[in-house]
Amino acid sequence: MKTLHAAKPIDAMPNTPTKCQSLADDLSRKELFFADLNAEYGEATGIEKSRLFYLMRSARAQVAQARAALEQCVNPPPPLPDLRPTDVRIQWHADRSGFDFAILVHNDGAPVSGPFKITAAVEYSDYSQDPPLDVFRSQDFIVPAAMWIQPGDTYTSEYFHNVPFLLRPGTAIASYTFYALVDADGQIRESIEANNNLQVTKLLKVPRIVIPPVGPAKTG
Question: Which among 83, 68, 75 is positioned nearest to 16, based on CA atoms?
Answer without folding.
Answer: 75
